[in-house]
Amino acid sequence: MPQLKCNVKQDPFESCQRCRKQNLRCVIEPNFRRVGKRNRNAEMEKEMESLRERLAQYEGPQALTAQSSMCSPRPIANDRRSSMGPASKVEDEAFLTTQHQQVAATSLLDLRSGSPLFYVLGVGDANVRLNPTEVNELFTEYFQLYHPFLPFLDQVRSPDEYYNQDHKLLFWAIISVAARRHNGRPGLLKSLSEPLTDLVWASIRKQPNHHVVKALCLLCTWPVPAERTVTDPTFILCGAMMQVAMQIGLHQPAHVEDFSRVKVHLRQEDIHDRLRTWAVCNIVAQT
Questions:
Q1: Which pTM does this prediction carry?
Q2: Alpha carbon distances (Å) from 250 to 204, 208, 221, 246
Q3: pLDDT single digits (tens) 167-184
Q4: Minimal CA–CA distance to 173: which of 214, 233, 226?
């Protein structure tokens, strides 16, 4: 079900759209403070500008020398000593400065678009970090190579929508399945094994939705490799998948309010999505 952003108005007070839709009392906590995406981006832009000024002050004349050396024709070295002279050092510094500026510009564009710079799974030294380019490549590989065998996910949705709106477990389940044939990051599937397992059990404990069931369908069909058969959790995950599906009422897709503590209004496409998930859940369990 799509999430509604809080659009409450404090002066004059008006209840937010979500509370009105679910017939709830709209209350503003004393520590409520709205921080919009534009404000955050503006703060980051100011910080980036400050960093640029500090970089310019730190480099001083070297930056100007680097720019002039980049504009002038590059001399052809006659011997090894001339190629390793001061001019080569200045050019290297100019190249690094240009690279830093390009990275800063790319980061600023990512902040303006609202997409994260990195997708992180796990904590500490065992975490896995993927940049948006790698994520897009993995999603493309999943929908080209694996989706035809279990076609129940929406190919139109972006990775950000899977990550922020559906559930992080579904996002990382797609990543783990695609990592089986991905050549860009050797050892990625092995690195995902431990933090993904932790995320699975944490998601099952914390009031899962039907997107968690989708993730379990993927992980039961393409399980994370285990060293021994006795340590393979696929059968346990399969039972948890069926239990969670019935607990949230997927077997009664049009009557989800009977299995929820809050009033829920589903659109027709939401009902179809839940019905399709329940059908795939049974197919995976029988398989």
A1: 0.59
A2: 15, 12, 19, 6
A3: 999 999 999 999 998 888
A4: 214
